[in-house]
Amino acid sequence: MADDSEPMQLDAEGDEDFDDDEEDYDGGEDKVGEVVNVTKDGGVKKKIITAGKGYLTPEKGDVVEVHYVGTLADGGEKFDSSRDRDTPFTFNLGKGEVIKGWDEGVARMKKGEKAVLTCAPKYAYGEAGSPPKIPANATLDFEVELLGWKSVKDIAGDGGVIKTTMVEGEGWENPRDKDEVLVKYEAKVKGADAPFTTQEVEFTVSEGHFCKALPIAVKKMKKGEKASLIVNAEYGLGEAGQPPEVPPNSELEISLELVSWKKVDDVTDDSLVIKKTLKKGTGYSKPKEMATVTIKYTARLEDGTVFEENNELKFVTDEDQVIRGLDLAVMKMEKEEVALVTIGPSYAFGDCDTKRDKAMVPAGSTVVYEVELLSMDNPKSSYDMSTEEKIEDAKVKKEKGNTAYKEGKLSRAIKRYNDAIRAVEHDNEFGDLKKDSKELKKSLWLNLAAAHLKQKSYKDVIQNCTKVLELDLNNVKALYRRAQAHMGRAEYLEAEMDLKKARQAEPDNKDLAVLYARMRKQMKAATKKEAAMYSTMFSKLAKLKDPVEPAQPIEAEPVVDEGPSADEPGPSGSGEAEPMEV
């Protein structure tokens, strides 16, 4: 069957479609000279002679280009060679155009790789062979060099847009819907000699441009990639076309290059802070909370009015030293990155007119910052700290939490307390400082309980107080705050138990007595209301004449403890506002 004037048509019994799931490759990262099984049954083996480049391999449907030399495994007699003809051989991978051993083996090769594929008869020409050069049941060796491939993909899923990669792009990322892409393209009616349009244009992917095929295609491309598109009328210019250049219902051929794109990211879940990358930064590290950063920025209103500029602003992240939107955006930047940050009013200056250096920012303004991250110094990780440093770090964060608490910034206070706890959480190896760590954790859990109490997050209050009580069984402040939380949940028996235990420890504590009296009053009111509810319910049931008609349930109004006011004293009798220090 081999013909010295044509590339060998390897189309014997392996003409069924390639099945990616039929056999699993066990080669992994192959090594030169190592023989590996391409198929589970060992029917196709591969031995690399020359390693390929990169990590990509061709996929089903790709048009691959190879040079090959075919020999009989038994005796080594050559029966075909593309090199003898000095003409590479091309085929569609995984489409049954070649023997199955090739579809399996070439799919596992990298660009530039040269390997010997040994194909058992069932993966070659089987019982029939290919007379006169290939006998029946022959095992074949193919020295194959993968010169390259063109990726051909049905990217719309219905045949409407067929994309062939002409020049590979760089990296691994693809544009997303919100990104702004810069492309070059030319389009012509399929089969025409000349394009009817040539453009270089920037557009937002989700908004599209020219025809439906372009945004679909760019989302499948990498930076610098060049592709050829075959586009049907539905994804092109439709039934109407674009007379006179484009007749109705025309298929199009589009040459497309993705020059670059600007990444656009939501900094916040509500999309009120958006960051567009103008210049990529260096490395992958970004500022963490409480990092010291230096930025250069120009701040504008949406109409372009500059209201503030600074060539070197230094601040600590997540410390409210700049507007919240800018703070959050900088923590998403890489060093030396330049970004355009659009910030909604709730993350900027809010509903008040605000005077800045160069202009007034009107109430409710969306603002735009062009920011460059000049430098950053992230705080030391607890893993890199000594025991003494961990305790000191926890104390600093605790003080920051206390400051936030006093300013009414409860969420920030809770965050700082939790950060502090993480610094000393695992103190098994603290040695002589373990006692200090224990006392610090107790005070932090108590402060967390106080903050959660103000938020009426009663479950969190109970959890934090319980942690304290596991270390200090009779801690009065923990019992006091846990009792308050139980009262907030109308769990009066549990509250009573905590308060009785606290009063045993401090029988003369007036604050405990006041809270106990309030608890008893609420308990009686709840019991009375519950009794009234059931009395009414049973009374109505007794009056029912028709047993088929269901009674309407009566909803009981829950008794909710309003909790302590902001200046309510704790059980220490000190009269100090919470959180109470231990």
TrEMBL record:
<dbReference type="InterPro" id="IPR050754">
    <property type="entry name" value="FKBP4/5/8-like"/>
</dbReference>
<feature type="region of interest" description="Disordered">
    <location>
        <begin position="1"/>
        <end position="31"/>
    </location>
</feature>
<keyword id="KW-0413">Isomerase</keyword>
<keyword id="KW-0802">TPR repeat</keyword>
<feature type="compositionally biased region" description="Acidic residues">
    <location>
        <begin position="1"/>
        <end position="27"/>
    </location>
</feature>
<dbReference type="InterPro" id="IPR001179">
    <property type="entry name" value="PPIase_FKBP_dom"/>
</dbReference>
<feature type="region of interest" description="Disordered">
    <location>
        <begin position="546"/>
        <end position="582"/>
    </location>
</feature>
<dbReference type="InterPro" id="IPR011990">
    <property type="entry name" value="TPR-like_helical_dom_sf"/>
</dbReference>
<feature type="domain" description="PPIase FKBP-type">
    <location>
        <begin position="290"/>
        <end position="377"/>
    </location>
</feature>
<keyword id="KW-0697">Rotamase</keyword>
<keyword id="KW-0677">Repeat</keyword>
<dbReference type="GO" id="GO:0003755">
    <property type="term" value="F:peptidyl-prolyl cis-trans isomerase activity"/>
</dbReference>
<feature type="domain" description="PPIase FKBP-type">
    <location>
        <begin position="61"/>
        <end position="150"/>
    </location>
</feature>
<feature type="domain" description="PPIase FKBP-type">
    <location>
        <begin position="178"/>
        <end position="262"/>
    </location>
</feature>
<dbReference type="InterPro" id="IPR046357">
    <property type="entry name" value="PPIase_dom_sf"/>
</dbReference>
<dbReference type="Pfam" id="PF00254">
    <property type="entry name" value="FKBP_C"/>
</dbReference>
<dbReference type="InterPro" id="IPR019734">
    <property type="entry name" value="TPR_rpt"/>
</dbReference>
<protein>
    <recommendedName>
        <fullName>peptidylprolyl isomerase</fullName>
        <ecNumber>5.2.1.8</ecNumber>
    </recommendedName>
</protein>
